[in-house]
Write a structure and sequence with these properties.
By secondary structure, the chain is of the alpha/beta class. Strand 6, helix 4 and strand 7 form a beta-alpha-beta unit. Bound molecules: inosinic acid and magnesium ion.
């Protein structure tokens, strides 16, 4: 039994290298290995630090997807920094304008430190534009750092200050990103397998 177990792990990890897997009903194949992602995140941390010229940033990580990215980026950041983990939520406002967006967990009074929003992925850019509006309403500018960016489908006009990887319009999971709640714990990033 023990031998069968060991052989099966060997078969999956070494022969297939976990290069293909199923999440819910969909087949995914490996797209970016964790080593490459982590190297890029370290570069990004240094890039951000250099651009700040000694100022202490307040990172605002957007949950859920950005928690892995934020955790690696923070530990690679070569200087002082602050962080808040926030969640975007929308609720019915009292006025006829309809939905109101709010960042749950954001301190009402933010320090004067430069704000850098950490996103896992910018796709159409709708989420980003809601976040940007919230900061504008507070009279604060923010910069955006996203690990993944899909330029083919981006509809926003806001400049994205720091981009980890520009990727084609494929659905990806892993390294914090999910497909219907699963896949966030995968170390590598996987894309939908081509049929
Ligand atoms: P938006 O279209 O830029 O507003 O992106 C909305 C949200 O959709 C992102 O914050 C992600 O949570 C999710 N999303 C977009 N593309 C992907 C993907 O390829 N994989 C997993 N989640 C995605
Ligand atoms: Mg997200």
């Amino acid at each position: 039994m023990f031998l069968v177990c060991i052989m099966s792990i060997y078969f999956n990890v070494f022969l297939f290298g976990m290069k293909k897997l199923k999440v819910h009903d969909l087949d995914f194949e490996i797209y970016l290995e964790d080593r490459l992602i982590k190297e890029r995140v370290v570069d990004l941390a240094v890039e951000i630090h250099q651009s700040l010229k000694g100022q202490v940033p307040h990172f605002v990580a957007i949950l859920n997807g950005s928690f892995v990215f934020a955790s690696d980026l923070l530990r690679a950041f070569p200087g002082d920094c602050e962080i808040s983990f926030v969640k975007l939520s929308s609720y019915d406002g009292l006025e006829s304008s309809g939905k109101v967006n709010k960042l749950i967990g954001l301190k009402e009074v933010l320090s004067e430190n430069p704000i850098i929003v950490l996103e896992d992925i910018v796709d159409t850019g709708k989420t980003l534009s809601k976040i940007d509006d919230i900061f504008k309403q507070k009279g604060r500018a923010c910069e955006i750092a996203t690990l993944f960016y899909k330029p083919e489908v981006y509809q926003g006009n806001r400049h994205i200050n720091f981009v980890g990887f520009e990727i084609p319009n494929n659905f990806i999971v892993g390294y914090g990103l999910d497909y219907n709640g699963l896949g966030r714990n995968l170390n590598h990033v996987y894309q939908l397998a081509k049929a």
